[in-house]
Write a structure and sequence with these properties.
382 residues; Rossmann fold; five-stranded mixed β-barrel; three-stranded antiparallel sheet; 18 strands; globular; disordered N terminus; binds 2-acetamido-2-deoxy-beta-D-glucopyranose; OLC1v1037366C1; Nucleoside_phosphorylase_d; catalytic activity; signal; Nucleoside_phosphorylase_sf
């Protein structure tokens, strides 16, 4: 048994070859490969990718998460990969840290090292869609990275060629943000043109770039997520501060990500009118871009914690108050989704949304509206 595993390890090392290895002090040690190979034999796994600790904690504390006793986690390259089950489905949970770079690196490591059949990404998000409320949980069909720009020099107009545009590096197809639209007097910032990412898919030619802007989530995951739409979610922070209406799970068309915490009403409005964005975050498109290139199915569950600058200007960003509620709601939806997936894998066609009622919200309270409007937040929360 031991020898067999050892052989497998050697094969794996040879296969990965140039990536990591040159000698005995390779980046991935033989001992580490043995652990990875043993874990992978028990796969495939659902990969659960989460940005921050306050978003991950409710999952780790949830009764549906059961850590793997024999090997609860494995630390590698500054990341901790946690093994266990959620709703009896084998998962690997990993925390990325803030931002696109961290999310991309971590997702790539996860799918490179482990036997992953799909990626579920979850967390909180800002909201640019005035039809939704804080606490609602969104599942966008498409994601885009809207932080890759070509910033024009002052004086150039929309018909002037962008730097390196003729080489195909940059495009005018997606459009731009005109800073002067937001300033009464002329300013020197001119405009920025949104750019698609260069992608190098696993089944393409290395070093031959393709371009991608909108990244679709997996169709099957997105269809399955429809069954989550009746799920009951927590509506209150403590027992006193309740949202105007009970939050809902909703599939939406678009979410966008960039390395920017958006807390600005004008930019929020622009992002909604230009891109039809609902959820605004700092990681989902990075996870999606890695999954797109590695051909791994993915979906994102993002609970709204704030209005991305569109709220009452006398208040600080609503995430100060609502991030914990949103994080709990995101975990409730994630675990319900895993349960749906599990039953689908197991071919249990009779399992539907009504079975999900057993997922009760983690924060209970007497619903304060409309019976007791004074118990509601004195805030415009949409
Ligand atoms: C969990 O799944 C295993 C098979 O993978 C099965 O034997 C066991 O009964 C399941 N447990 C529950 C609580 O569904
Ligand atoms: C940019 O904004 C300025 C000020 O609103 C406007 O005069 C100009 O026409 C805009 N340019 C484009 C291309 O939209
Ligand atoms: C909220 O209400 C529940 C049930 O009424 C109670 O058990 C719990 O202690 C309360 N929590 C807080 C923070 O007041
Ligand atoms: C814009 O997004 C909303 C919310 O997801 C969706 O209902 C609507 O169909 C979208 N509009 C377009 C033109 O895609």
């Amino acid at each position: 048994m031991k020898i067999k595993l050892h052989k497998l390890t050697i094969c794996f090392i040879l296969a990965v070859g140039f990536l990591f290895l040159s000698s005995s002090d390779a980046a991935v040690s033989e001992n580490e490969w043995e652990k990875i190979a043993a874990i992978n034999k028990k796969g495939p796994y659902l990969g659960i990718v989460v940005p921050n600790n306050f978003e991950m904690s409710p999952l780790l504390q949830s009764p549906s998460f059961v850590p793997l006793k024999a090997l609860p986690y494995f630390d590698f390259a500054g990341k901790r990969f946690r093994f266990g089950k959620v709703e009896n489905e084998s998962v690997i949970v990993v925390l990325t840290g803030l931002s696109m770079l961290n999310a991309g690196i971590t997702t790539q490591l996860l799918v490179t090292l482990f036997n992953i059949k799909g990626i579920l990404h979850f967390g909180i998000a800002g909201n640019a869609n005035s039809e939704l409320q804080i606490g609602d949980v969104t599942i966008p069909r498409y994601w885009a990275h809207t932080g890759l720009w070509n910033w024009q020099r002052f004086g150039d107009g929309t018909d002037d060629e962008l730097a390196l545009e003729c080489h195909g590096d940059y495009t005018r197809e997606i459009g731009f943000l005109n800073f002067s639209d937001f300033n009464i007097d002329d300013n020197l910032l001119n405009r920025v043109w949104f750019q698609p990412e260069e992608v190098f898919p696993i089944d393409g030619n290395p070093e031959i770039r393709q371009h991608a802007f909108w990244i679709p989530v997996n169709n099957r995951y997105f269809s399955l997520a429809k069954n989550l739409e009746g799920l009951e979610l927590g509506a209150c922070v403590y027992n006193t501060t309740c949202l105007p209406r009970r939050p809902k799970v909703i599939r939406v068309e678009r979410g966008i990500s960039s390395n920017t915490f958006v807390d600005n009403a004008a930019y929020r409005k622009f992002l909604n009118s230009k891109f039809n964005a609902t959820a605004i975050d700092m990681e989902s498109a990075a996870v999606g871009l890695v999954c797109l290139q590695q051909r791994i199915p993915f979906v994102t569950i993002r609970a709204i914690s704030d209005l991305a600058g569109g709220g009452d200007s006398s208040m600080s960003n609503e995430a100060n108050s609502f991030a914990p509620l949103a994080a709990n709601n995101a975990v409730d939806v994630l675990t319900a989704f895993i349960s749906l997936l599990k039953h689908e894998y197991d071919g249990d066609a009779s399992f539907g949304s009504n079975q999900l009622k057993r997922f009760s919200p983690q924060q209970h309270c007497t619903f304060a509206f409309p019976q007791n409007p004074s118990g509601c937040m004195d805030l415009d929360l949409i």
